Each structure stands twice: as C-alpha cells, then as structure tokens.
Amino acid sequence: MPESETENLGFDPDALREKYRIERDKRLRSDGNDQYLEVAGDFSDYVDDPYVTETLNREPLQDEVDVVIIGGGFGGLITGARLRESGMDSIRMIEKGSDFGGTWYWNRYPGAACDTEAYIYLPLLEETGYMPTEKYAKAPEILAHSQRIARHFDLYRDACFQTEVTELKWEEQTARWIIHTNRGDAMRARFVVMSNGPLNRPKLPGIKGIDSFEGHTFHTSRWDYEYTGGGPDGNLEKLGEKRVGVIGTGATAVQCVPYLGASAKELFVFQRTPSSVDVRDDRPTDPEWAKNLGPGWQRERMENFNTLTSGGVIEEDLVQDGWTEIIRNLISMANYRGKGLDRGEIARLMELADFQKMEQIRARAEEIVKDPEVAESLKPWYRQFCKRPCFHDEYLPTFNRDNVTLVDTEGKGVEQITPNGVIAGGREYQLDCIIFATGFEVGTDYTRRAGYDVIGREAIRLSEKWQDGMRTLHGLHTRGFPNLFIVSNGQAGFTTNFPHSMDETARHIAYILDQCADGNITTIEPTQDAEDAWVEEIIRLSRINDGFQEACTPGYYNNEGKPDPRSAQNSSYGKGPNPFFRLMKEWREEGSMQGLEFN
C-alpha cells in the first residue's frame, strides 16, 4: 500500500495484520472445542432449572397429535403461531423449561438484554399489537413477550413443560413419529418440528480442578439469585461481603459484569480474549415514532437490516446500530474511491473498513478506562466478525472501580481451580464464588446439542447421516426422515437477527403442511437428487473463508481456532438471507413442491 494512503488511514494495515497474528497465536490450542466439558454426569446440576416454582406432575402420554414442536423458544413459538394462523388446531409444544421463552427463559442474569434492536428482534410485534419499551429490550420484557405470543396464539393448550425429548423414532407402518421423553411419554405425531435453538446447551471450561472448589459456583444461564440476592435489574445485595470471580468475557459477561462490580466486595474478571465493546446508546421508544408506523413496518425494517448486514448497498439505514455501521463505513470508503470496483478491491476496502472500526473500538477502551495497562488489556486485536461484537456503555467503566480487577491471562486462560479459588498467571485468587460466563455449545454435533437422536426410515440415525456434514433440502428436510422439519441456520438463510430467519422458516412449514392437508398427503421428504443438489449449492456458494477463519483469534465462530472441515457444507446460504427468503417464496409460488416426494 502506498505510504500516502497509510498516512491518510492513520494506521499501518501490515502492522495490524502482524499484531492480529501474534495475538491469535497466543490463544491457539490443540484441543479446540474439546477444551470444554459437557454438562452431564457430575456437572449435570449446572443445567438444573432454578426458576421452577412448582414441579409439574402428570401421567405419561401415549396419545396422538398432528404436529409436535420441540422447543418453546422463539423458533417454536413463531412456528406455532404461523401454524395457528393457517388453521392448524392439533399442536403440542414440548419444552424442558417451565414456560415458554427458550434462551430468554434460561438467561435471567442481571443486565441480560438483546443486542439486536428490539423492533426487529422481538417477533410478531404487529400480530400481537406490542411495541417494545426500549430500543434494546431487557430479558424480563422479552420473556413476557414470549408468553404473550403463546397466549395470543393459544399455544399453552396441550403444551408439555418440564419435559425433555430423549428419542424421536419413525414408525413406518403407521407413518407416525413416536416421541419418547424423560417423563415416560411415547406420544405420536404426523409431523415434528425440531426447534431446539442454536444456543441452548451450556458449556463449562475443562479447567484442572473445576470440581474441587469449595465455594459456590453457577453458570450465567442458571443465575442463582438466592445466593446473589437482587434480580435482573441488579442490587445483588448478598454479594456485599463476597469475593466473586467471573470466568469468561464474552457477550454475557459484558452485560452482567457491571452489576457484579456494583455489588460485590471484590470482583475478579478472568479474561482470555477481550470482547469488542462498542457504544450501545439505548433509549426509550419514542411514542410519536411508534404511532406513525404503517402496516408492514417490522418486515420492512428487518429486510433493511438484513441487506446491510449481509453486505448489500441500500440508500437508507433504518436501524443505524453497531451491526450496520461497518457496512456504512465500507460504502462510504468505496464511494470515495470510485465505482466499478472488482471483487478483490472490494475485499481490500472491506478489510480497511474493518481495521478502521476496530481502531475506533480500541480507542474507546483507551479513552474510558483510566489505568493504561488495563485499557491495553481490554483492546481486541482481531477482525470485527472473528467474535460476536458487543455493545455496552457500562462494561468498560466498571474497570475503573477500586473493587474490580481484570485478570488478563494473556490468552492462556485460567490455569487451575483450587478448593479456595482460581490460579491464573501463577497466582492464586481466593474467592467465595465462581460464575461461569462461558456460553453455550456451538459447533458440536447437532444431536448432542439437541439432547436426543432421531431414528428415521430403516433405523438410520440422524447422527450417522450427518457425521460428515449436514445433508438437507433448504436446511429444512433431510431424506430418510419423513414429515420432519428442522429450524436451523445450517443450509438455510442466516441473519444476525435470528427471529427473522425463524419466521421465514415457519411460514414455509405452514405452507407445506397446508399442501399436505389439501392434497391428502401422508408423508413428505426430499428426493435424493434434490438433497444432493442443495448440498452442492451450499458448498459452492459458501462464504466460509478458510483463510479468514484461520487468521481469526479462537472462538466459537471458528471452532476455537480449529476450523471444522464440514463448515462450508454446514454453512448458511451464501447469497445472504434476503435472496434465500426470495428463493423460498418463489418455490412456494411455483406450486409443485419441487424436490419433495410425497404419497
């Protein structure tokens, strides 16, 4: 790059690339995802439900319904809503929690909130007549909206809470799925929708001595308010005399650390890799703005967001948040340098726009955090989308508190947990409580994350069929598993705004079930040719860039620094979400259900 261009940028791209490489190399580990423990056996209490107010007792079910939806989070709720709209009456929801909400049932830690704006993130706003109170709704409001959706669409009727599926098995002679659960159920269904959710299975770090600590521990997705006191709004008064350690500095920690810092006698935050923390700028909903929105406003806003976050050019950015800003930067840079750019030049400008944004993020840490050494430790040295970007206005200032200590492990992580605390950097930190802000399993096998296997025609297991990568049509159907629908990002449309993708999938499922009812169709599944062609199309269009993934600091986006060879095959539709949604709409309008065979 010419020296004059480097001077105009205010940084040296080559120097940044080298710095990123050095920081990545510090964090590379040979065990990848295997560094985490499965929450089973001795660790199964980490997934117990602390929010149960009453244990539900019922007799095992051996009845039959038309549709079983597994999962009571947004995906299941939206699917149930769209099926109700289409006239489907016999629907049963199965959910391991005690109520609807999914992620927002489990994640009740102080400060939990959405980081995609609520006006596009909360589903079915127009349908339920609800408007979020803030741009970024907090967890209690999102949980209440989940329950609102369930009430509005009569999904509580016949729902099975506190119930976990243990096996799903196809019975050929009756053309029914048999759903076995931990409550002894063997219920039957014509159709099953698997909406297990992308983030539902907590993970623990495989730290030496993790089971030796004699103090109190819990995972952020099962927050223990009985121990901490307070509630989702903070005031954790029982921590006033406690020394608390938080392991993990991802999106969850960014939200809960300010509340812990405000309440604990001492707080130690153990960091392997700093998060990218940008401005949040939350604000109450303007009632005048809300009053003047026209019909279809939410879909328009969602599509606008998708276009920008998948690299499209559009005149107006309706959302204007941190997710869309990098694209605005790129467009501005590209316009400045002229039109008619080839793909290589666009990629180069995209990298420069990324560098500019991350320079801004690092400067923000330096400006806010008073201790220069701590500020330096909080600077993220990687490309913006190597890890999930965070947006918060109180996280960085928390490290100015006298009672808060950042323990920067220089990429190595915690060395050991002892009966009395945590060892990092060769020093033992004595603690009363350890909180694991270590997130959820991503990149592990689908059936492990679901918590059960699926047995289809001729006793084939989904775990066996997908052992070398997903094989579906449109990410929704898989051959050998009739009448089964999968709500997932894999081989389908991906957007940062997950609920939008879920809604498009739900509309598609409702259409297909309508066709089955109208045509007296008993079973439906993809043809082998259609499935093979779709898998080839996903691989051909994949945006999974091995070079980019390998250059990233380890995290769940790149399988903890060991890119999965199946990533391209398991990836989403490479042309982006809106083109995928259009493709599905055209498929429905064509009317012949191409690629599916039925009888």
Explain what the structure shows.
The structure is a single chain. It is built from 22 helices and 21 strands. The longest helix has 26 residues. It is an alpha/beta fold and 599 residues long. Helix 9 links the parallel strand 9 and strand 10. 36% of the residues lie in helices and 15% in strands. The chain is globular. The protein has 2 domains: 295 residues, FAD/NAD(P)-binding domain (3-Layer(bba) Sandwich), CATH 3.50.50.60; 127 residues, 3-Layer(bba) Sandwich (FAD/NAD(P)-binding domain).
- The stretches of 5 or more residues where confidence is low (pLDDT under 50) are none
Tell how many strands the DSSP assignment holds: 21
Query: What is the radius of gyration computed over CA atoms, rounded to a whole number of angstroms?
Result: 24 Å
Based on secondary structure, the structural category is: alpha/beta
The second-level CATH architecture of the largest domain is 3-Layer(bba) Sandwich
The helix content is 25-40%
The CATH class of the largest domain is Alpha Beta
Report the β-strand fraction as a percent range: 5-15%
Mean pLDDT: 90
The H-level CATH homologous superfamily of the largest domain, spelled out, is FAD/NAD(P)-binding domain
> What spatial form do the alpha-carbon principal axes imply?
globular
